[in-house]
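Working notes for the structural subgroup meeting. M.R. asked for a predicted model of this chain before we commit to crystallization trials. I am recording the input and output together here so anyone reviewing the notebook later can reproduce the run.

Input as submitted:
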Amino acid sequence: MTNVTIASAGGLPTRGGKLTVRSGAARGTTVDIGIEPVLTGRNASCRLVLADNKVSSLHGEFVATERGVRVRDLGSRNGTWVGGVRIVEAFLAEKTSLWVGETELLFEPSRPTHLPLPTSDTHGPLYGASARMRAVFDRIGKVGGTDLTVLIQGETGTGKELVAAAIHQASRRNRAPFVVIDCGAIVQSLAESALFGHERGAFTGAVSARTSPFVEAEGGTIFLDELGELPLDVQPKLLRALAERRIKPVGSTRYVPIDVRVLAATRRDLAVSVNEGAFRSDLYFRVAQVTITLPPLRERNEDIPGLVRHMLGDMGSAQAFRRVPHESLERLMRYDWPGNVRELRNAVAVALALAEDGGPVDVAAQVGGPSRAASSSGGPGGPSYHDARRDALERFEHEYFERLSREASGNISEMARRSGLERVHVRRHLRKLGLASPR
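Returned structure, recorded in token form:
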């Protein structure tokens, strides 16, 4: 997705529409498309259920945006087709016919509307003056006072845990614990114990009992970070615990009732993981009663100057913003930020620590990549430090991605898994380095 235009404080312009089924068992069914994502597929929990054997369990997603209705194929088996072209993602602004499996869908746009947004550019520890971030703040405010389960989606470093903490603070449970479970750090053989605790002697090495995080969070909120990494064989046990609101520690014969609100986060597209068989659809719908999607920093780069000012204030050096060169801010806004806000915060911290008293705080000098303007050439003794550092980074990236592509046989998903990067960043690096296009 490309950068969005900043909306006025009055609201975010959105363009929705209506979807009508034109063939198959659901012929004549219509759904309105707004800012809440509409899932289509064979799964009975989808908003638009299609009884078509060539339609995947979770086939596609439709949601109103400022550019029109975004239709996104969720890694379906037979694809989503618009005008004879198989699409991964597209924006619909005019009357359009689509095919999913053997089912025809007709999209008709509605009149543009404005979504009212908060005027504040902060929400707890979060900052964002852009319309995309103020829409996130609005969503936090609406779900905070409920006990709904929320799935927070976004790339690494976008601030998913901060959003979870903000929801907890806005809830009636804010005086009770906020407990984090990092599902990505759970050892598969000990996953059940990590979630539900265990009794002493329950297994080899269990020399003492372990209390479940669900018990530790009693009355409060439990945050399942990186839920998409949870081993498949443990997922039905988590689903049962959430549905029955009770847990059984490993080695115990009794159930323990729990009273917690569940928030979850993932950098993966869980709907795609459902189609790949890596995540259970029933657990997905259990945790995704409400979804909040955090935009990557490159899609809200107009927030970068304000973020730098906000971060310097958090670091006790608010006045240092005056020492950040304008040219440095411009370079930051041209960078693609694979590490998102976390990467920016690290760059700000390093730049502040290295700046001489009263000297410039050059944040852009602490990040690499194509956004960096041509730095001054080195003197007779050779290249400058920054030139040498950039050249070394470029050599490393070329060698790393060339080897990665070769070892993964060009498979983009495998390359992303091995490198720990999002697939979009793997593709961007390959294009930048002139390497073969991945499969």
